[in-house]
Amino acid sequence: METYTEEVGSKLNELLEKTYDAEKGFKNAAENIDNSSLKGYFERKAKERYDFGHQLKSEIRNMGQEVDKGGSVTGSVHRAWMDVKALFSGDNEESMLEESIRGEKAAIEEYQNILNETTLPGSTRTILMNQKSQIESGLNKIKRLEDVH
To answer: How far does Cα 48 stand from its chain's mean position?
Structure first.
């Protein structure tokens, strides 16, 4: 049976994997889009996820837990799907925006699940709430970009 700290560390490592996946996905989107506004948005989101990853790694280490490396199989599949969709889509930018919105909604749900189902140390709760808030803010921004596009 996992201890409390191991359980929290495990959940944070799962979130860290998804954060790596999101960073790679945003980098991929930025590299494959011509629209300068969208390119800038995706680059900022990749940097944001990079920063989130470092915050999560630091928190996991502060709890005395091991940090998992790499991304998830699901994230690799999602990025591959975005590549295929972009290749065959008549509106590359629109499909990337839609995938980004879907991914951001999934991230918010993931954060909320961890916040709801786990009793977290105060520092961890603060980090997760701040990151979730930034994702929500970015989601609102990308929805506005989609409306303009």
So the answer is: 9
